[in-house]
From TrEMBL:
<keyword id="KW-0238">DNA-binding</keyword>
<keyword id="KW-0010">Activator</keyword>
<dbReference type="InterPro" id="IPR029016">
    <property type="entry name" value="GAF-like_dom_sf"/>
</dbReference>
<keyword id="KW-0749">Sporulation</keyword>
<dbReference type="Pfam" id="PF15714">
    <property type="entry name" value="SpoVT_C"/>
</dbReference>
<dbReference type="InterPro" id="IPR007159">
    <property type="entry name" value="SpoVT-AbrB_dom"/>
</dbReference>
<dbReference type="InterPro" id="IPR037914">
    <property type="entry name" value="SpoVT-AbrB_sf"/>
</dbReference>
<dbReference type="Pfam" id="PF04014">
    <property type="entry name" value="MazE_antitoxin"/>
</dbReference>
<keyword id="KW-0678">Repressor</keyword>
<dbReference type="GO" id="GO:0003677">
    <property type="term" value="F:DNA binding"/>
</dbReference>
<dbReference type="GO" id="GO:0042802">
    <property type="term" value="F:identical protein binding"/>
</dbReference>
<keyword id="KW-0804">Transcription</keyword>
<dbReference type="InterPro" id="IPR052731">
    <property type="entry name" value="B_subtilis_Trans_State_Reg"/>
</dbReference>
<feature type="domain" description="SpoVT-AbrB">
    <location>
        <begin position="5"/>
        <end position="51"/>
    </location>
</feature>
<protein>
    <submittedName>
        <fullName>AbrB/MazE/SpoVT family DNA-binding domain-containing protein</fullName>
    </submittedName>
</protein>
<dbReference type="GO" id="GO:0030435">
    <property type="term" value="P:sporulation resulting in formation of a cellular spore"/>
</dbReference>
<keyword id="KW-0805">Transcription regulation</keyword>
Amino acid sequence: MKATGIVRRIDDLGRVVIPKEIRRTMRIREGDPLEIYTDKDGGVIFKKYSLMGGLVDFAGQLCETLNRTTGRVTVITDRDSCIAVAGAPKRELMEKQVSSELERLMEGRQIYQHKGGEAPLPLCTGEDKFCLDTVAPILSEGDVLGSVVFVGRPEELEGGEVEYKLAQSIAGFLGRHMEG
């Protein structure tokens, strides 16, 4: 645990304000769920809660299937990080923070496919080895939960109709699965 030096008081209704700098750094937005933990030393820890976090194993199996079907590097993300990877070393991508470009695409709620001549968009913050080829946001009851992404190195972005349809189908499936 890292001390921030910031102290806040609890108000009469039991609320605590999380400072803007921390919300921005940790990408905590209004309405985001936070999970509350306690430690044996009396500490209280708030952690961003990911609805997709419960699907890590299932998402991993889906990624493996998509990778075997297309031969492409496949990633499933929640709103903040990569939760499943196939076709690339997991240590390079697992739990890495998604780029602001991917975050913007998810919020746009549209399927994205890289077009030749466009500048490649990175998958992860501070990482340009893997770039976005095809992105389909995972939507559940109108909320963005994450995305299904085909990625590639900047020189090998070549998404076609197959990747488009597969990403769209898997994202739709995961969104409906989360509603149930």
